[in-house]
Write a structure and sequence with these properties.
Bound molecules: ligand 3NM
CATH class: Alpha Beta
Order of helices and strands: HEHEHEHEHEHEHEHH
CATH architecture: Alpha-Beta Barrel
Oligomer: single chain
Shape: globular
CATH superfamily: Aldolase class I
Number of strands: 7
Strand order of the largest sheet: 1-2-3-4-5-6-7
Radius of gyration: 16 Å
Number of domains: 1
Number of helices: 9
CATH topology: TIM Barrel
């Protein structure tokens, strides 16, 4: 969930996603104050806990720890994984955004629990370099054992390409949040994901 793309409040958006069957949530807020990120994360963490889902805070390991989130997601320019682990402890999840096989291998060696890889397709949600494409995802899939979540420009129409290239799952922002009926798109994505068995070799 990206704070800058929300047209309704975060709690309402989360309730819609929970009702649609989404179980893994990340709160991403690049423009708000840390106080706002803390307050919203606190509310969302409680809601996700009640729903039985998994809640990850983007960027801020201290806030993730403070709200007892299930994990933190770090970018290449954020805290090193070892320090994130120090804050979060052994029992929480640490995810890392990666944009190359080399970064994915580094994340695996450093003890990440999962990696994001992207942008798989063109996206305007984040300023990124050129998109990676499914062939690079396929190469990365074969280079690491960690769960790989594909991100960037994923929609119900191209989700199959990501899964067929070896993604264990997908992370989606605008296709859901910018849709006239976010719940319907989330249900559609989940239905399509569930047609793929586990592709991993773990
Ligand atoms: N990270 P949408 S691409 C947050 O490549 C983010 O690491 C990316 O949003 C990466 O689903 C991205 O709207 C934007 O394209 C994803």
């Amino acid at each position: 969930m990206d704070a800058d793309l929300l047209t309704i409040d975060a709690g309402t958006a989360l309730a819609v996603a929970v009702a649609a069957g989404v179980r893994l949530f990340q709160y991403r807020n690049k423009s708000g104050s840390r106080k706002e990120v803390y307050n919203v994360s606190h509310e969302l963490a409680d809601m996700v806990k009640r729903s039985g889902g998994v809640f990850i805070v983007n960027d801020h390991a201290d806030i993730a720890k403070a709200v007892d989130a299930d994990g933190v997601h770090l970018g290449q320019d954020d805290l090193p994984i070892a320090y994130g682990r120090k804050i979060m402890g052994q029992n929480k999840l640490i995810g890392i955004s990666t944009h190359s096989v080399e970064q994915a291998r580094e994340a695996e060696t450093a003890g990440a629990d999962y990696i994001g890889f992207g942008p798989l397709f063109p996206t305007t949600t984040k300023e990124t370099g050129p998109h990676q494409g499914v062939e690079r995802l396929r190469l990365l899939r074969n280079a690491v054992m960690l769960p790989v979540l594909a991100i960037g420009g994923i929609t119900p129409n191209n989700l199959a390409e990501a899964m067929q290239a070896g993604a264990d799952g997908v992370a989606v922002i605008s296709a859901v949040l910018s849709a006239p009926d976010p719940g319907a798109v989330a249900r559609d994505l989940i239905k399509r994901i569930n047609t793929f068995g586990s592709t991993s070799n773990r």
